[in-house]
């Protein structure tokens, strides 16, 4: 019997962190030929993750250009995927989450009549412009996909409400699988500044901020809030790996650079980011992935957005929305910095994103779908 040709498609750093463990799990199965196609929607940041996980793509579209737009990303992915699919001839294409690469990858698979598996399916805010363009990307992929690998029961229920009733599996989130391979107590950072932070003596607050919907006034408010937190709390040191987006870097330079005890560093490889998170006190972010990663490490998360597609973490108590208003961000951050009981309540909440077995479940479910296994994997309860 021929091996199943399963092609994973991704292009950004967050996708790569969550998909590389799955690429390797697919490759470990004798029934499967694991193929990997990257779009390089994020070139430098993508490559650092591939290096950490020792994943070598079979196909690289290399689409990234300076100040690229959503239209150029999507069109280049679509045209580039034509040759990749025609050459590699996958039986199924796996896409992840909600990026422009995800949407274009799924659409290209549909055009070639190739089955689509959607990893991290079923996340919703129900506001098509927030996050932008991610909310519409994931809804459009839901209309195309054949299999849906939902991190939580809530994600599955979102799809059921949209009358998607077949091919649904609850697997947990593959980012937990990734953390199990990257976080180590004896880890030494290649970014030397991180080896000399006063862990244990000061409260290290890890910051990320880069989302398109926060461009403009919201980002200004966020940067001013971060400056105020640093200025008013001498026991705190902020570490901010600054996204490569020119818009983000300009805001950082105008509003945050020069603030006391604020470490502005370049984006970190996945293993460095995970180990820094493990040693931090608190996470302030507008990222999606960190809302899943930090709770798995027992770190409270304040989300600098108006909404989240990850309400499970809010319900569990590991994540709180603090919005994009300066005073609100400062108030909520300072409560966790100064109130031990409030901090402990969040730090010890149960992580809702699984047990680190998501990749195994996804591959078992794929094998079952293609008739190579008698039963699908057990759903994550």
UniProtKB/TrEMBL annotation:
* Coiled coil spans: none
Q: What is its EC number?
A: 5.1.3.14
Report the Pfam families cross-referenced here: Epimerase_2
Q: Which GO terms describe its molecular function?
A: UDP-N-acetylglucosamine 2-epimerase activity
Q: What range(s) does the UDP-N-acetylglucosamine 2-epimerase domain occupy?
A: 24-365
Q: If you read the UniProt record, what top EC class would you report for this enzyme, in one word? A: isomerase
Q: Is Isomerase among the key words of this record?
A: yes
Concerning InterPro entries, the annotation shows: UDP_GlcNAc_Epimerase_2_dom, WecB-like
The superkingdom listed in its UniProt entry is Bacteria
Write the record's keywords in alphabetical order, separated by commas: Isomerase
NCBIfam families from the entry?
wecB
Its family remark reads: Belongs to the UDP-N-acetylglucosamine 2-epimerase family.
Protein name (Swiss-Prot/TrEMBL) = UDP-N-acetylglucosamine 2-epimerase (non-hydrolyzing)
Organism annotation: Dysosmobacter segnis
Tell me the classification of the organism that encodes this protein.
Bacteria, Bacillati, Bacillota, Clostridia, Eubacteriales
């Amino acid at each position: 019997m021929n091996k199943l040709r399963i092609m994973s498609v991704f292009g950004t750093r967050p996708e790569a962190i969550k998909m590389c463990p799955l690429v390797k799990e697919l490759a470990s199965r004798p029934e499967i030929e694991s193929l990997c196609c990257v779009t390089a929607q994020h070139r430098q940041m993508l490559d650092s993750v591939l290096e950490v996980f020792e994943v070598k793509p079979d196909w690289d579209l290399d689409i990234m250009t300076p100040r690229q737009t959503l239209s150029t990303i999507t069109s280049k992915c679509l045209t580039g995927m034509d040759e990749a699919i025609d050459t590699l001839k996958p039986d199924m294409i796996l896409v992840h989450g909600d990026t422009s690469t995800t949407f274009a990858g799924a659409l290209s698979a549909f055009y070639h009549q190739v089955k689509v598996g959607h990893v991290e399916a079923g996340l919703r805010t129900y506001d098509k412009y927030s996050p932008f363009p991610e909310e519409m990307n994931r809804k459009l992929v839901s209309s195309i996909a054949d299999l849906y690998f939902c991190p939580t029961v809530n994600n599955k229920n979102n799809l059921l409400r949209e009358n998607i009733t077949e091919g649904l599996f609850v697997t947990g989130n593959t980012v937990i699988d990734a953390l199990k391979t990257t976080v180590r107590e004896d880890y030494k950072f290649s970014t030397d500044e991180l080896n000399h932070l006063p862990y244990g003596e000061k409260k290290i607050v890890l910051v990320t901020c880069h989302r398109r919907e926060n461009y403009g006034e919201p980002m200004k408010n966020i940067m001013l809030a971060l400056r105020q937190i640093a200025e008013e709390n001498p026991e705190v040191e902020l570490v901010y790996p600054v996204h490569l987006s020119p818009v983000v870097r300009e805001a950082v330079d105008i509003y945050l650079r020069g603030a006391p005890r604020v470490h502005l560093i370049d984006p970190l490889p996945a293993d460095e980011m995970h180990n820094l998170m493990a040693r931090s006190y608190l996470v302030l972010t507008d990222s999606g992935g960190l809302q899943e990663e930090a709770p798995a490490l027992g770190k409270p998360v304040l989300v600098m957005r108006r909404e989240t597609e990850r309400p499970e973490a809010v319900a569990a108590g590991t994540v709180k929305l603090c919005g994009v208003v300066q005073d609100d961000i400062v108030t909520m951050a300072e409560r966790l910095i100064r109130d031990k009981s409030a901090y402990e309540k969040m730090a010890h909440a149960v992580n809702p994103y699984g047990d680190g077995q998501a990749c195994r479940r996804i591959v078992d479910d794929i094998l079952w779908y293609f008739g190579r296994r008698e039963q699908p994997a057990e759903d994550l309860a």
